Amino acid sequence: MTNTAKIKKNHQFIVLKKLIIVSVLIGFLSSFLGIVLKRMTEYYEEIFFERANSNFIFYLIFPFIGLSLIYVLRHYLFKKKENKGIKEVFESTESKSKNLPNYKIPSHFINGLITVIFGGSTGIEISTVVASATIGSVAQQKKNVFRQYKTELICAGVAAGVTALFGSPIAGMLFAYEVVSKKTSRYYLLTNSIAVGIAYALLTLINEPPLFNIVITTWHLKAIPYFILLGIVAGMNAAYLTKCVLFIKGQFLRINRYSYKIILGSIILSSSLLLFPQLYGEGYHAIKSIIYGADPILFTVSAAMSFAFILILKPIVTSITLASGGDGGVFAPSLFIGAFLGLLTATTLNHYFDANVIVLNFLVLGMAAVLSASIDAPLTALFLVLGLTNNYILFFPVLIVCFISKYTAQMIIPYTVYSFTPNTIK
Predict the structure, then answer these.
(1) H/E element, 244
(2) Which pTM value belongs to this model?
(3) How many of the other CB atoms lie within 10 Å of CB of 47?
(4) CA separation for the pair 375, 396 (Å, rounded)
(5) pLDDT tens digits for range 14-39
(6) Is the dihedral of CA 155, 157, 158, 162 positive or negative?
(7) Which of 2, 117, 176, 402 could make an S-S bridge to 159, C-beta 3.0–4.6 Å?
(8) Cα–Cα–Cα angle for 319, 322, 328, nearest 5°?
(9) Contact indicator for 267, 61 with CB cutoff of 8 Å
(10) CA 336 – CA 317 distance, rounded (Å)
């Protein structure tokens, strides 16, 4: 071996070693951030939600307080710096010169927390994704040797953050691939595998339970036509969610004064929460109350009408939350919409058509189907929702509904909230 070959081999080994070390660091910091934000949000959201339930006045003032706090922080603490959410992650991975600035970490952490605990009808998932992507972006800026691995390190942060939130390393890696990168390399696989491995090890160490502990025992082949129906309806609901977000954001952009946006957004959000407290925050509390409720889930006209109104209102209040300054995305709303859509579909089929489908199965299938169509990531939705329940019995049915919902939504609109640009409208 010549001296040149030896030097080249030694250089590659040094780069590999540094990539492994930085991937471990990114994995730990991103997952730690995700876990802390998740636990803080759950803790304070429960306290604030109980306070609002005990006195309706808080339903009226919490959204205004939350949106106003976010405005003050953005205006004074973060110096009016732009905030475009996950699209900034896309721009950073597509550009060699554009990086995610450091302030994105505290900005999205704080604003995501405030948005949800004060009743904003969205979730912390995209806040976590942008903050953890920034950790990867900052890491690649520290040494020249990492500059060519910018996408790999950003995606490592994203994958670790998603793993921390949902307890599924496969979902973390797939989200980074399907939504952010859309391409792989051996270094991509190396950095992302290490990052999600560290994240999952941290979750195991602290014994983090699954978000929804649903007991699923079986499913039946005769239910496949109903799965297909659910996939189609889920795709339609996902398209409705996308249309709502884009339309309402566009309307709010026409409002010149930010104070008017906050006031209008607060009024609509507060009114919706008074009518349907299930819309408060991430909405996971509403899903858990159904799963762990003492009474069996049966069809009643009043319950069906409530579910239908919730399915209509949720995309609107999510869009209002985001358009009036809240931090978040369509991740948690998609899971929420999917759960209620699955419940409504299953109970309706059982009541009117004697389908005898398993209602809790449809709750899980609905979550995966709407998420798949909303973010155009069927494999991510598959493993994420199965990881949420820590149960893989429904693997094949979830696979079916995820792809059907995705293609149904694409037939209605060819883009998602994440992929939309003004020139995609035809």
Answers:
(1) helix 224-253
(2) 0.93
(3) 11
(4) 20
(5) 778 888 999 999 999 999 999 999 99
(6) positive
(7) 176
(8) 115
(9) no
(10) 13
